[in-house]
Hints:
Layout: E1 2-9, H1 16-32, E2 37-39, H2 51-57, H3 65-77, E3 80-89, E4 95-102, E5 108-113, E6 119-121, E7 127-129, E8 142-144, E9 149-151, H4 161-169, E10 174-176, H5 183-201, E11 204-207, E12 211-213, E13 219-221, E14 225-227, E15 233-236, E16 243-250, H6 252-260, H7 263-266
Parallel strand pairs: 1-2, 2-3, 9-10, 10-11
Antiparallel strand pairs: 1-16, 3-4, 4-5, 6-7, 8-9, 11-14, 12-13, 14-15
Helix pairs in contact: 1-3
Amino acid sequence: xxxxxAAIQMCSGVDPQRNADDMERLVRExxxxxxxxxxxxxxxxxxxxxxxxxxxxxxxxxxxxxxARAASLARELQIHVHVGSxxxxxxxxxxxxxxxxxxxxxxRICTYDKIHMFDVDLDNGESWxxxxxxxxxxxxxxxxxxxxxxxxxxxxxxxxxxxxxxxxMAGADILxxxxxxxxxxxxxxxxxxxxxxxxxxxxxxxxxxxxxxxxDGRETYGHSMIIDPWGKILARAGESGEAVLVADIDIDxxxxxxxxxxxxxxxxxxxxxxxLATSGGTSI
Length: 284
C-alpha cells in the first residue's frame, strides 16, 4: 500500500493562538498535496523557556487550543493529524510534553508523553533541564492505522535506540520523531541519528522539526525529514523557517528492507561478563 505522508516544519513562538493558526495553514497545505497523515513538530503550541510564563498559558487537554484545532482539522479534512507534542497541564499540577494522534473523524486515537528528558550541558554554554519543568512519560506506544502501524517518540528519545527497537519488534513500520533539536546538537547528530533509527529497524521515519530563532531566544536546527527503510532521505527541509514535506510511503518497502537485512529476526539474547584485568587471565 502506498499513501502520502507529510512532515510540517514550524518556528513556533510564545503565542499559542498564533501557533495554532500557523499549524492550521500548514496542515491544510499538506492535505491539498494529498497527505492523509500529517505530523507537526515537538512543542507545536509554544516554545517558551520562561517557566512562569509557560505555566500561565497551560491548559488541560479539554481546553488546549492546539488539541482542539488538530481534532477539528482531522475531522474537516478527513486525515490523520499527529501533533508532535505540546505542553499540557496534568491533573497533578505537573506538565506533560505530550503528542496527540487524531483520526479522520476528529476522534483522539492516542497520546504519547515524551519518555526521555533533555537534561544536558552543552559546550557552547547552553544548559537544559527539561525534567525541572516536565514529568517524563513511562509508556511506549504504537498505533495501528488503516495504512500503517505508527511508533511514537519525541526529540531526545531518538538517542535511545531500544525504544525504537521495541516498537519495531511490536510491528511499527513507521517511526516518528517530532522534535525541537538545538542547533548545536542538530548539526552534529540529527541526520545520522534519524537515518540510523530507520536503517536498524527497517522502517520509515518521519521527523517534523522546529527550525529557526524563536521568540524565547532559543535556536532550533530544522531539517525536518522523511526517510525510507533503507536510509534514503525522501524529503528534507532547510534549517530555518516553515516547510511542508510530502512523500509517498510504500509500506511494502518495509517488508523488502527487513527481508534483505533480517536483523529484527536475527537478534539474540545474551549475557554480559565483566572481566577484571587484576584478576588474572589465560596465558597465550
